[in-house]
Amino acid sequence: MEKLVITGGTTLTGEVSIMGAKNSAIAILPATLLCKGICTLNNVPNIIDVNLSCQILEQLGSKITWVGPNSLTIDNTNIYNTHAPLDLTSKFRASYYLIGAMLSRCKEIEVGLPGGCNLGARPIDQHIKAFEALGATANCSQGKINVSTNKLIGSNIYMDVVSVGATINALLASVFAEGTTTIDNAAKEPHIVDVANFLNALGADIRGAGTDLIKVNGVQELRNSVTYSIVPDQIEAGTFMLAAIASKGDILIKNCIPEHLDPLTSKILEIGGNVEICADTIHVWCKNRVNKTVVKTLPYPGFPTDLQPQIGVVLSMANGTSIINESIWDSRFQYTAELNKMGANITAQGKSAIFEGVEKLYGAPVFATDLRAGAALVIAGIVAEGTTEIFNLKHIDRGYENIEKKFASLGAKIERVVEK
Ligand code: EPZ
After folding, report:
1. Looking at the structure, do residues 113 and 260 belong to the same domain, yes or no?
2. CB 30 within 8 A of CB 55
3. Is the Cβ atom of 94 under 6 angstroms away from ligand 1?
4. Are 158 and 273 members of one domain?
5. Mutation probe of ligand 1 site: the residue of 49, 158, 164, 307 with most atoms within 8 A of C-beta
6. What is the mean pLDDT of each run of 10 residues along the chain (420 residues)?
7. Atom from ligand 1 closest to the CA of residue 399
8. Whether 401 contacts 6, CB under 8 Å
């Protein structure tokens, strides 16, 4: 078993470059199934969820070659298997994208019910609603889903909840659907736009991605090759922004798209931190203890739920009492119990938590309860007095490439240790 051991009390300074977006990559990888030739993807994060996606695609017939540290080619000329490996697909959430992609490619697919971080109930009713609207039939039983169709026909899909996954799945399934599909109340996250840009680069006709009404005019075929670069990961960038604030540090974050981080930038300025934007870099620094605030997570362009635990660390040490209202997930405050072990004073109840700001955190053994909780604990360990050990690293490695190397390059005393 591995753990991260952090000797805290560090002020982070320096430069860090942002990887390609995890949540784009794990959607674009299955999206390549719509191409009957070779796709070259650049800026691909080398993380567990990407490697799992590649393993699953290979079992369907894809030939994948890493041609650089963050570049790969996928040859999907010969897709022969419509049964995705249940053990792998049930390990992470994004395996649901195989459904939309394989419906388009082969008109049928069987996958395990998606796994992923335990953030409370994670239904996929809106995905199923979209597939059925397009003319597919779905059966869920014994931990797996079978979806098939004779023909996909364009339709008007209204999402009852704003869902990133269901919006992307509806896009994937509608590219070849006969006629026009509209997706109303669509999610607007940067990775929705990225998936649409990738599909359009292949010859799809998708308009309006990034707004709440997306229109897809069905096409009969796509190009046989494309080279595409995945957008920078806004959540990794936000994690470093908040690490700069929590550690009263000074970090230049390179290779990011600053406007994707507008809600976080505004919050940082509001609590007394400093942010300076120049082209694709964000300079973040803070000298003093930050002020209390209220945060409410919302779909993009609201404050991202995937940065909620990281800002939770900042607010646990703010001057005064802060409140976070989590409106996306039922169970995203598990990290607060771990932060309380480090001296924080947080009371979480349901989807709200009250943060009584303390002056200092103290090192302790803690457990990453999910991906972003893990990132938050890394920040907490770096600023705490004394030594923090973080266990359960499998969550962190699912979504952050070289997290300890990146923080170490900013001055953190952090190492990965194999526990005997
Ligand atoms: C994506 O999850 C991300 N995961 C999550 O990132 C992120 O927290 C979430 O979007 C919100 O931004 C991936 O991209 C793989 P949703 P997803 O469908 O698509 C409800 C991270 O840390 N809902 O937008 O599964 C749902 O319960 C992770 O990187 C339905 O009710 O999220 C939730 O309350 C964790 N029915 C809300 O919608 C459905 O059919 C938003 O979920 C689908 C969703």
Report:
1. no
2. no
3. yes
4. no
5. 164
6. 96 98 98 98 97 96 98 98 90 90 97 73 90 96 91 98 98 98 98 98 98 98 97 98 98 98 98 98 97 98 98 98 97 97 97 98 97 98 98 95 97 93
7. 29
8. no
